[in-house]
Amino acid sequence: MPKRFVEPSQGRLLLSEPALSDNYFSRSVVLLVEHSETEGSVGLILNKPINMKLNEVAKDFPSIDFPIYLGGPVHPDRLFYLHTKGELVSGSIKVFNDLFWGGDITKVVELIENKQLNKSQVRFFIGYSGWSVGQLDNELAEKSWIVSMTNKKSIMGPNPEKLWSELIKQMGSDYAIWANFPADPILN
């Protein structure tokens, strides 16, 4: 169950409030992969799969059928990834426990080709979400986000499209109504 009312830090989730109408962040779950009071924050949107496969986006990639997700609006021309093989992928950054981001892409491809890394162990993103120093604090003060604890199972789970509503429901009855809040209240 997500713990409520925690401070943002690396490895925590940002859950958007239901009326946030931004195209990227509406009903989004963002994993903070970096967070610093002096450098800002970097995150990946976990619950926005796009209708493309990895080898359609990364032309030099082998023909593997892995889904790809919208990570955010910053650098939509670049590929980012989360994985569980930090001990095998040099240059990986530990997010928490056994979840990592980045590292040697050549090694990631090799692990996939050798069937040592599968869809439940790696997730690819186009772009990332970024906040300059103080920007995320301002958005939190405006109540655009709730910061939540998480675990690897939630992040790498099989139903990312349902992640936002599942996490909101787990936060208790005060927030469960959010899960049923219409995406566009005007159309209600």
Walk me through what this model shows.
It is built from six helices and ten strands. It has 188 residues and is an alpha+beta fold. The chain has a single domain (13-178), classed as VC0467-like (3-Layer(aba) Sandwich). Strand 7 and strand 8 (99-101) form a beta hairpin. The longest helix has 9 residues, at 105-113. It is globular.
Q: What would you say about this model in short?
A:
With 188 residues, this protein is of the alpha+beta class.
Fold blueprint:
Blueprint: E1 13-16, E2 29-36, E3 40-45, E4 49-53, H1 54-57, E5 67-70, E6 74-83, E7 93-96, E8 99-101, H2 105-113, E9 122-131, H3 135-141, E10 145-148, H4 152-156, H5 163-170, H6 173-179
Parallel strand pairs: 5-9
Antiparallel strand pairs: 1-2, 1-10, 2-3, 3-9, 4-5, 6-8, 6-9, 7-8
